[in-house]
Description:
CATH architecture of the largest domain in chain A: 2-Layer Sandwich
Oligomer: heterodimer
Largest sheet of chain B: 5 strands, parallel
Number of helices of chain B: 9
Strand content of chain B: 5-15%
Largest sheet of chain A: 5 strands, antiparallel
Number of strands of chain B: 9
Strand order of the largest sheet of chain B: 7-6-5-8-9
Distance between the termini of chain A: 49 Å
Number of domains of chain A: 2
CATH superfamily of the largest domain in chain A: Aspartate carbamoyltransferase regulatory subunit, N-terminal domain
CATH class of the largest domain in chain A: Alpha Beta
CATH architecture of the largest domain in chain B: 3-Layer(aba) Sandwich
Strand order of the largest sheet of chain A: 2-3-1-4-5
Low-confidence stretches of chain A: none
CATH class of the largest domain in chain B: Alpha Beta
CATH superfamily of the largest domain in chain B: Aspartate/ornithine carbamoyltransferase
Mean pLDDT of chain B: 94
Mean pLDDT of chain A: 90
Order of helices and strands of chain A: EHEEHEEEEEE
Radius of gyration of chain B: 19 Å
Radius of gyration of chain A: 17 Å
Helix content of chain A: under 10%
Largest interface: A-B, 17 and 19 residues
Shape of chain A: elongated
Amino acid sequence: MSKKELNVSALQNGTVIDHIAQGQVERVLYILNLSNYDDQIYLGANLDSKKYGKKGIIKVANKFFEPEEINKIALVSPTASIIEIRNYEVAKKENVQITDEIKGFVKCVNPNCITNHENVPTWFDVTNKKEIVLKCRYCEKNTTKTNIEFI
Amino acid sequence: MKGKSLISINDYSKDEMLRILDIAEGFEKQPRQPILSDKVVSTLFFEPSTRTRLSFESAANHLGARVIGFTDAASSSTKKGESLKDTILTVACYSDIIIMRHPLAGSARWASEVSSVPVINAGDGANQHPTQCLLDLYSIRKTQGKLDKLNIAFVGDLKYGRTVHSLTIAMCNFDTTFHLISPDELKLPSYVKQHIKDKSLEYHQYRTIEEAIDKVDILYMTRVQRERFADPIEYESVKNSYILTKNQLKGCKENLKVLHPLPRVNEISENVDNTPQAYYFQQAQNGVYVRQALLATILGATK
């Protein structure tokens, strides 16, 4: 009996998000707002990785991201790399980077913060990029990797 | 500092803090100076704080300014559902500066971002109360003649007390030795201790006032509240350790002063009030001079 294999075709044009930290594929989809995307998306989770043990991967056809959009995922998966494919060729390959400021898409952990009560966009200074510590510009409390929630 | 909001004590550099204290000294010598007679100051108190509001209003009146405002959210249109942003945008049309107190952390920073006039934070939830911190610094400098190389004890609730956190961070600029006296449940949070460690300053932790009383120049009292304890028996067993009595001042340094942000409930016995160490009411008086200095500086009326 021949072994059946799913045929995942190479992207002609689009973006590959590789080396996603284990367990974070769903969150990355959410952060990049891909749940309503209507072109092809390939997902892989718990794949073997020489570098990280296990990894996730997302391939999005015919979609390219702005740096500020793609860098959001650094908060949940700082190891991720972004590969842009144009006409089957790798046009660009980059690691995600945590920006100095985070605006608008992370919820402040402090329930008494003004951003959780009025229509105030959240705004954080990243005070520790390695541990991921976000200091709220408003209430001055820290939101960290362990309690981070996306809006 | 002219035209600049004061939201957090971290907004001011060491030099800026000292500059405000110097200007406040001038107002202590001569409190009545009608230099803001052409200004309107608004005091927006979304939660009541009689002491802070009266102190600001007294400061504004001493400078000849007119004061408008409200004393709690129930008498403002917040009750009708108006957003903080809309309230601030409107009040900024009526006044030259806004002083605000609000129950939510970060509200004052948000207000300063939307307001066309400067904002002074008079307390935003559990976050910041920078004018309290400046008046504490003023009181320390006035009673000790300096801010450098002092031994400061904080007593009571060091975990939740924002005045303790702000003052600790501010005093880290001045080569301070800290004496932290609290029950285990209410120790100073690690992020505040980190400021002390970052400056390589000395700190000691104790459970009772007696252990530190002979070492310190300033004894800063705060209230230990029953509701902070998960176990009421624990509260009952420690509560009397954090009530200062006249007897406990035996053996203290001659220059020791007792400070308290007020209001006091029972954490300082009334028999302390007449000792030379009691300074908490003068501390409240100093608050008026410091707030005069801030209003005059931010509104550009100082030389």
